[in-house]
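Re: that chain you flagged

S.,

Sorry for the slow reply, it's been a week of failed gels. I finally had a moment to sit down with the sequence you sent. For the record, here it is as I used it:
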Amino acid sequence: MGRGLAGFAQEVGPGWVDTAVVGLSEFGRTVRENGSRGTDRRHGSVGRVLGGGVKGGRIAGPQVRADEAHLVQNRGFPVLTDYRSLLAGLLRCLYGLEPASLQRVFAGAAPADLALL
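Prediction finished late last night. Pasting the structure tokens below so you have them in one place:
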């Protein structure tokens, strides 16, 4: 995936500064092993945002400790940023979309400002 994205950035050339690529997955894993020493599927995951104008090199958004007090059923990370909020926030910044327009696409999700752009 890394080589593919690097090739894409090279192909885009100077337009990369105005490009934002988002990689999302709803496939998460538990923090704790199960009885057979594996990890089970969970609902939390990470999103990756890259592009020429992205202020990256960091973990953006809320974070919690991987301890019993913060994990769901003491096994998995909670969802802290809805992917719809992430996308709505990026589209608001990139295209100046109004809240009403964003709500038509991402109903019920407030745009997240993660200071990515």
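What I noticed first: The beta strands are 21-24, 28-29, 41-42, 47-50.

Talk soon,
D.
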